[in-house]
TrEMBL record:
High-level lineage: Bacteria, Pseudomonadati, Pseudomonadota, Alphaproteobacteria, Hyphomicrobiales
Pfam name, any one: DUF922
Keyword Electron transport: no
InterPro entries noted in UniProt: DUF922
Signal peptide interval: 1-20
Chain segments carrying region Disordered: 45-64
Organism expressing this protein natively: Rhizobium aethiopicum
GO biological process: proteolysis
Keyword Ribosomal protein among record annotations: no
Name of this protein: Putative secreted Zn-dependent protease
One function term, GO molecular function aspect: peptidase activity
Keywords carried by this UniProt record: Hydrolase, Protease, Signal
Amino acid sequence: MRYMCLPVAFSIALSLSSPAAAEVIASKSYSYFDIRGKTADELDRELSRRGPTASGSSARHPGATKIRFGGEATYIQDNGRCRVGNVKVTVHTQIILPRWNSRRGASKELSMIWDALSSDIKRHEERHAEIARDQARAMERAIRALPQQRSCEAMQELVSNESTRGIEEHDRLQARFDRVEAVNFQKRMLRLLKNRINGRAGRK
């Protein structure tokens, strides 16, 4: 898997009078690792040697996305019942991408291959980040919709269970995306290269 989901941190507070509110805060950052090479084989070896690893695996990848969920919830106690008050779900994604440092002097064919590959890597990792943001919004809606409970202890357990379920669903969605992408990689790269070749021919 080319994404890394870090443990969710969900803090809880009790509020007796604050009005209900909901919020999703998403942020994104980028980092890069440098590779060198003047042939396709050299670039492939560099990606395999310098690429990031995913959680629980020593295998290296041409790109990766680190994902961290967090959140806060408050409870409102009224007339012997407890309900969710404020809900805030946060998600931060860090996209890790390769950067080719020895492009100068490389062949036009290798540059074209690299442009196609690097754009596909970036598109893939951006989609991982988008899946995480979508799931953060789904988690916020699910927590906000939880039914009232007889005690805030029971409400807290319900919120905890829902946040765990949301993270598990997120991991399933990410893994399914990676499986689909792996199957279609060759066709996708051939299409990208064909489009770039046709684009160059059209500019001549």
